[in-house]
Amino acid sequence: MRHLLSAGDLTRDEALLILDTARELAQVGERSVKKLPTLRGRTVVNLFYEDSTRTRISFEAAAKRMSADVINFSARGSSVSKGESLKDTALTLQAMGADGVVIRHSASGAARRLAEWVDGAVVNAGDGTHEHPTQALLDAFTMRERMGRLEGLRVAVVGDIRHSRVARSNVLLLNTLGAEVTLVAPPTLLPVSVDAWPCEVSYDFDEVLPKSDVVMMLRVQAERMNASFFPSAREYSRRYGLTAERFARMADHAIVMHPGPMIRGMEISAEVADSARSTVVEQVTNGVSVRMAVLYLLLGGAIQGPGHQGETR
Ligand code: CP
């Protein structure tokens, strides 16, 4: 594995290696000194052309916990505003010796293009409506920690599938790992190509809900909508929101997930989001471990394994 561009590029063994490595590296986050020397001397550039809270911060935390030098690049305030292209920005990073580039971009396919221009490892941190592979990996990690398995797990992914890179990456990865995914959305919020995705599709949340082990709610991505995809927020919430009433009809063992940012009161009620069966905060914590594992495996790490408890600084 040279880059991480799509969850669909990962074999089952590669995906499990990332999850197992993340589990070992999670122990670093529980120590008083949260630092390993593993990536000392390596440079990771976070190249963010789109807004982010969780992904940007957790990639930065992940790289710093392994002692990498981190350069944060935000398109706002850079020469992008003067018309500089992604390619010229990439070549500038290349000239500065980036060993790894983490990119978020509004254009689907931007990460793959970048990988053609730089020598370092490229990690896709979200490209348009296409993919967000580290989100799918942290979601799979969270499911496995909470439910003890992924094989045969019934996962409902609910909401704005059409504009969701999280949904596509989750479907591809969970299929590789043996889980059964059902996408739940109004017909207008499903992508045209959904028939080719390795999952089931339903328009009826109430029918799918009680049969699900995991209910993953997605944000309605208003910023990507150039038309009206449902009559009103209230109508959307009535058919597809995870309200307290629906939450009460979930299986007792089932968990609720959300990649964030959440629109409380629309796709998920505040009491469901804050309940003990919601993994929203755990997903953020696990995101750091999973991104540490991805950077560790892509950038080669040090001679010692990730469990090495030696030198810290
Ligand atoms: N889940 C996720 O990608 O969140 P951010 O947009 O805040 O990074």
Automatic annotation (TrEMBL):
Residues 2-145 form the Aspartate/ornithine carbamoyltransferase carbamoyl-P binding domain. L-aspartate binds at K82, R165, R219. It is an enzyme of class 2 (transferase). Gene3D superfamilies: Aspartate/ornithine carbamoyltransferase. One of its GO terms (biological process) is 'de novo' UMP biosynthetic process. One of its GO terms (cellular component) is cytosol. It comes from the Bacteria. Transmembrane segments: none annotated. One of its GO terms (molecular function) is aspartate carbamoyltransferase activity. InterPro entries: Asp/Orn_carbamoyltranf_P-bd (IPR006132), Asp/Orn_carbamoylTrfase (IPR006130), Asp/Orn_carbamoylTrfase_sf (IPR036901), Asp_carbamoyltransf (IPR002082), Asp_carbamoyltransf_Asp/Orn-bd (IPR006131). Signal peptide: none annotated. Its EC number is 2.1.3.2. The keyword Transferase applies. Pathway: Pyrimidine metabolism; UMP biosynthesis via de novo pathway; (S)-dihydroorotate from bicarbonate: step 2/3. It holds the Pfam family OTCace. Residues 151-298 form the Aspartate/ornithine carbamoyltransferase Asp/Orn-binding domain. Carbamoyl phosphate binds at R54, T55, R104, H132, Q135, G260, P261. SUPFAM superfamilies: Aspartate/ornithine carbamoyltransferase. The keyword Cell division does not apply. Heterododecamer (2C3:3R2) of six catalytic PyrB chains organized as two trimers (C3), and six regulatory PyrI chains organized as three dimers (R2). HAMAP family: Asp_carb_tr. Catalyzes the condensation of carbamoyl phosphate and aspartate to form carbamoyl aspartate and inorganic phosphate, the committed step in the de novo pyrimidine nucleotide biosynthesis pathway. Belongs to the aspartate/ornithine carbamoyltransferase superfamily. ATCase family. This is Aspartate carbamoyltransferase. The lineage of its organism: Bacteria, Bacillati, Actinomycetota, Actinomycetes, Streptosporangiales.
